[in-house]
Amino acid sequence: MTHLTRLIAVLATAMAFAVPATAQDGPLRIEITEGVIEPLPFAIPNFVPESGGAGELAANITRVLSEDLTGTGLFREIPQSAHIGSVTSFSSPVQYADWKAINAQALITGGVTVQGDRVTVKFRLYDVFSGQEMGDGLQFSGTTAGWRRMAHKVADTVYSRITGEGPYFDSRVVYVSETGPKDDRRKRLAIMDYDGANTQYLTDSSSIVLAPRFSPTGDRVLYTSYETGFPKIYVLDVASVGRRTLTTPEGTMSFAPRFAPNGQTVVYSLSQGGNTDIYAMDINSGQSVQLTTAPSIETAPSFSPDGSQIVFESDRSGSQQLYVMPAGGGEPRRISFGQGRYGTPVWSPRGDLIAFTKQSKGRFHIGVMRTDGSEERLLTASFLDEGPTWSPNGRVIMFTRETQGEQGSASLYSVDISGRNLKKVRTEGAASDPSWSPLQN
Amino acid sequence: MHTGHIISGAGHLALFAWAFIGSFSLPPDDAIQVTDVALVSPEEFAALTPPVDQAPGADTAVAELPAPEAADTPPEATPQTDSTPEQAPPETAAAPAPEAAPEKPDLTTPQADVSDTTSTITAPSEDVAVVVPETPDEAPRDIPRVAPRPVVRPDRDVAVGESPQAPTAPSDTAEEVQPAEEEKAPEEATTRIVTEADDKGQGLPKSSKRPPASRPVKTAAVEPDPKPANTPEPKPAPAQTETATPRPEQKEAINDALSRALAGAADAAPDTPPAGPSGPPLTSGEKEALRVAVSACWNTGSLSTDALRTTVVVTVEMSQDGKPLAETIRMLTSSGGTGTAARQAFEAARRAIIRCGAQGFGLPVDKYDHWREIEMTFNPEKMRIK
Hints:
- The complex is a heterodimer.
- By secondary structure, chain A is mainly β.
- Chain A has two domains: about 40-165, 3-Layer(aba) Sandwich (Rossmann fold); about 170-435, Neuraminidase.
- Chain A has helices at about 1-20, 55-70, 95-100, 145-165; strands spanning about 30, 40-45, 50, 75, 105-115, 120-125, 130-135, 140-145, 170-180, 185-195, 200, 210-215, 220-225, 230-235, 245, 255-260, 265-270, 275-280, 290, 300-305, 310-315, 320-325, 335, 340-345, 355-360, 365-370, 375-380, 385-390, 395-400, 410-415, 425, 430-435.
- In chain A, helix 2 (about 55-70) crosses helix 4 (about 145-165).
- Chain A starts with a helix and ends in a 5-residue tail after the last strand.
- By secondary structure, chain B is mostly helical.
- Chain B has helices at about 1-20, 30-35, 40-45, 55-65, 250-260, 285-295, 340-355, 370; strands at about 160, 310-315, 330-335, 375-380.
- In chain B, helix 2 crosses helix 4 (about 55-65).
- Chains A and B meet through helix 1, strand 1, helix 3, strand 6 and strand 8 of A and strand 1, helix 5, helix 6, helix 7 and strand 4 of B.
- Strand 8 (about 140-145) of chain A pairs antiparallel with strand 1 (about 160) of chain B.
């Protein structure tokens, strides 16, 4: 029987390859359904300094641009040592064969000009194998002190042209900077570029601060402080570091604030009489409206990008789950049904997903689900992951990861929504509670 | 007589066993020699018995014996097995016509992408970007508590140049460059995304030890761990192995397959000639090889989530050496995404065709009419983020 089976298999294979395909009418048609997932290799020769003294700045801009792209996990830089061709002038024609030979699929060239304290950066992007330019060349100008932003701007343009995703490199992150031992942790608000550069501090560490949240325009930050002994919500102007308190009834605790997309309304949790509900406040008039009235704990509200709905966490069902309700209040609809506890939901700026923290089987996860609760995917798993925040383009999630033990500390991590490219974000010391700003103007 | 039957029967059984169990790959000539043995009369067979030790040589000799012309000694009734040898299966051993060897890839170095035309790049206008004058940093207002380091007002003077720069054109003075051998594909390629959540961890807390940002007051005890879901999911029944004894209908199918195979694969051509190009069309294997070749270069790793929902149909014309003509690659249709997503998806498809076709796809030249133009549908359904 073995021989017979083998014989049949051989014959079947032979016939499959020998029998001509069905009659062909028109061009040959094939369907490709599986490809490969790998970073796209690109080449980026140092930008050409086009004025005296621009050499170092050109090299620095080139490095930041490259780090932005490779940091996404979607691109891979071909080392400059492997380059065959060189770019000595921004206007030189591109010798595509030189870049094909090293398998560079994209080529970025640029030039940098410095005049006084002003710098101009221009660049071009080429599709090497197609032998054509991808979009038009662009240039950015600004102060020399803002050269990193210009590098981020160029990287954003390149990233968007190749991937089709929105930009996010020219953005910032506000977070809680932590110092000291675990039992005496000192906390203060800090702000930095998305990649950890240009860190500055917004508050001192005299009292505990929690959960900073950017406004839709990125010029203000909401946060919770225990300065008075009770948690209170403050609004801080990022440029001037001036702040004020959101007025709430005496003897109550207010926390978990977040801006509405209009930038004028703030939703938050208010705890009084042992019950916690969600309220909305007009930030100018100070008028508040109660949105939930359940005897359970409702907190961590987050608006949908169009401002029509709010997702929040509640334990009204007996365990901590996620619910969605109209922005003006109303009957909430439960969207999480998986095993474990769900919390800190955040609506994606694209509106298609909700990120959350999940605790299940003794592990903490950062996950995403559709806004109706379907297609839940867990992206991370560790001793303690929590507090997700979305990049401006809705492609990357940053969160807090804390390590175990007495020496454990909190750090910021980021992960692509595919679950790939999990990496630690560079910060000055321990950090937690990140909030990603919108794209800067 | 009885002995003759026994001998003849044993001989035939041995013949069948050899033909069936033994290798089918023996040359057909050997089978014909066996057939001759069956025609030997018992007397002749008996006469040949003494030198049985010389069996191999004897077989040959017997086969060449003259026919029993001595009619005066009519042979005893011989077993009615004359037709048996004709049922011998050696013809099944006739291997199907070997697949035409694939065309040797054209190893000639491709021409450098240098055109005859050139143009001068227009330098971008110096004043294209709108520069916002620097404003002095505002002093922090008088507030109860001042940060140790005030934050500098964000730089707002970064602006995008409005006028696009002239596209770069190749130089006509550029020398033709012969590209070197391509770099190997990166090793990190994968077709499956494994997230950290797929790993199993140990020694984990039951609740967050961090101050709860959304719940600053611990109003309730830590919830017990959810009941561990130790109930294993029912395992699917093991699939039937292919070596299972075939049922009667399966046997019939096998016999049919054998019959078709015996009839010769070459005869399996379609009854009606194709309406398109003349000559034999590409076999399934040849089309599969092309599909696999393009798949190897179709990189979806840098595509947006929208582009991964977009199916594009791309057409390309081919040169006779199996290489795609890059300038003929165009998108016919797209579905499932926006125009921007379709453009990203098309560019990824175009890169795949050009990269993996640079050395030729190894298509059979004699069937060039059939693959002169190819329509490729790039469907990323299996590559989506799930």
